[in-house]
Amino acid sequence: FEASGPDISILEAMTGLRGIPQKPYTISAEVRPNPAGIALRGAVGVFGDNRFEADGVVGLNNSGLTGTDLRLKVSGSDLDNVALLAGAPYLPPGPFKGAGRIRIEKAGRLTLTEATADTAGFSATAAGSIGTAANSGQFDLDISATGPDLAGFLQFEFLDRLAGEDFQAEGGISYQAGVIGLDQVRASIGNMKADVDGTVAKDASTTDLALKVSAPDARVLSEISGYDDLPDGAVSIDGRLRKAPGHYDLDEMTIRIGDNQLTANGKLSQEPLKNDSDLRFSVAGPSLAKLVLPFGIKTLPAKPVSVSGEVNGIPTGFAIEKLDAKLGDSTLTGQFTADLRDKPSITGALSSTLIDARKPEQDPQQEQASATSETKVPPADQTGEFVFSRKPFEVDWLQSIDLDIDISIDRLLYSGLDFQEIETSVDLDGGALDVKHLSGHEGGGRISADFHFGPLDDAYELDGTLSLENVRASLADFAVEDWSSLPPINGQMKIRGTGNSPHEIAASSTGVVDFTQGAGRTKDLAFLRRLRGLLAQIAKPDDPLLAKRPYVPLECAFYHASIADGTATIDKLALQSDRVTVVALGTVNLDNEKLDLSLRLKQRKGIGINLMGVANSFMKLGGTLRAPKMRLDPTGSAATTGAAFATGGLSILAKGLWDRASAGSGICDTEGGQ
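-> structure tokens emitted (674 positions)
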């Protein structure tokens, strides 16, 4: 038998196959009748660029090709043609060759044995069944396969991330109704080895997989997961993952990457009101910063971390229970519940034996750079920006959730501060945030505060108080060996304002700041560090006041300002150290942020050092909070004393401080600095 023609697609009507290309063909074979159809011997078919060789029986009956039993050899220039014909568009393109035995014992199902295939650097063996006609695209095969590119071998979308990774695999693999089945599959992808059993939907919407995975590093895992910057170290994954619409089931799942470990066991619902979450989890690693970096978070500290707890369903949502977290030396324990029936509402209690929120210690080079920058004056404000931003508050989050959290902290370290026995409650209700009854101890003294930020008419109201009682605090970020040497601070601050931005609140604010400091040794005061930078505008480079000292023996300080309608009147800002007395008076307009301050620096008597230059001068501080400007004020003595002083609206208390500083007298030897 010999046949040829211009278009092999005419066989579609005869065979029921779809996708036969419109190609010229030649066919030759020895043909004999057979009860199932026809017997072929030495059959050769050339269809375009594809060649088929066959020996066996081709079934021809009312059931199509049922009864077919053929040994085949195939080759061609592009596997795409065969892939489309077989209804398997995920097979790779390119030249191919293959051999095997096929049988069709019932309609729509082809049985494959002794099959081998090679294409584009891939090789495979297979035995099993492949769907045809109405079942095209389905298969159930025992396979072994190797190749240079897994994504190129099986062109499923979820494998695209593995482009270029060589692979080896053996085991059972099936595909039916959009679900891929894996039966005792042993595979390697790049440098990752995996044993897998289970099923996964083609679109990954459902999964039931038992996994055992190992790799010397996280490179391939990063490609599979889509997360970059995974931690360094060997990878191991062991457990069972089931995913279905609405929930995950994790059976003794353990993931290790280097020294990082995640464990999870139980069910986690994505539909919390079904009340069926029951999950125990733990996470641990040597660096929180590296652990969260794959999620794009770059601001957390590089400290050892561990977190464990339970997620349990409740009728109204879920509960986090037995929470136990550590970050470096910091600890956090507690529990909370989330009511998700309407707007999320979280209620709970958290406690800690220690929270260390200090910045990492600087190395000597960083400290030197910091010290050098202290004397530099910031450039004049060329952008129109202000210290108090005009950008409206982002308050949507305040309306999105309600909170009622009680917090207890035995010890809190922040900057140079060491707080003890902190108690407070955080309440967020209807967009109003309240930090209530905040109390604690610091440096042997006591701190208390209340804070409110919430809607008022068409704006937001800020209302806060802070009280300090004999607090020996260091605002500088440094280690203090003897807290008792720090100057004690006493006083109170009250502030209230309304608006829709920090600027509007500042411009409308009213309140008072009234603090005093007693004698003690302290790190160079922030006020003096800032003052040195301003003095650099007018002083000579070798002026002794520009020199940095390791600490300042402070004798006393007074900070008093009254705030009304956005204007802060500073009528008692003074400090006295072993070398100099500083008094500052004037106003700060919090609307336009303009400064109008007079300063007097006076050398102390009998200190054995001659501080010339600006140390015995009157000065004016103008400009803005963003870009202050200092200048000498030769007329300051006349302009700020006597009648002119009084008519300027400054208090008798302020005048007394000014006069005592001008006369070279101390300001600490009378009550309140008067």
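The longest strand covers residues 459-472.
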